[in-house]
Write a structure and sequence with these properties.
mainly alpha, about 85% helix, about 130 residues, 4 helices
């Protein structure tokens, strides 16, 4: 009897939280709004006309591209570590290897996000001068 109560309580909570999220997704007017704002921020500004502005923008885009690529690599490593852990089937050596890889890849992701945040901060600071 208590298993039925626990199961029904679980599904009730699950569906009540999902019902709160669905209207929020429907209220967004433009699904590309955030992407368009990001594109406007990162687009190469050709209106400045100055070679110095072009070089600064090019360097900023290059750094952003490199950080994005490294972030994707760490994300793939995180997924690989999770799959390795799930397929270890109780083998302690494989589980330890997967845990270490997962820890290292999460630390790498944190470093990449911090580097990106620092780059954006410095770029905004330098461009405002």
């Amino acid at each position: 009897m208590s298993k039925k109560i626990i199961a029904s309580s679980f599904f009730l909570l699950l569906f009540s939280f999902s019902a709160a999220v669905i209207p929020c997704a429907a209220l967004t007017n433009d699904p590309l709004e955030g992407l368009n704002e990001t594109a406007e921020i990162t687009v190469l500004d050709r209106s400045a006309g100055s070679q110095e502005d072009f070089v600064q923008t090019l360097i900023g885009r290059l750094i952003g591209t490199i950080l994005s690529f490294v972030g994707v690599i760490f994300l793939i490593l995180t997924i690989y570590a999770g799959i390795t852990w799930m397929l270890a089937r109780g083998n302690d050596q494989e589980v330890t290897k997967a845990k270490n890889l997962l820890t290292d890849s999460i630390i790498g992701l944190i470093i990449v996000f911090a580097a990106y945040a620092i780059t954006v901060f410095i770029g905004n600071f330098v461009s405002s001068i």
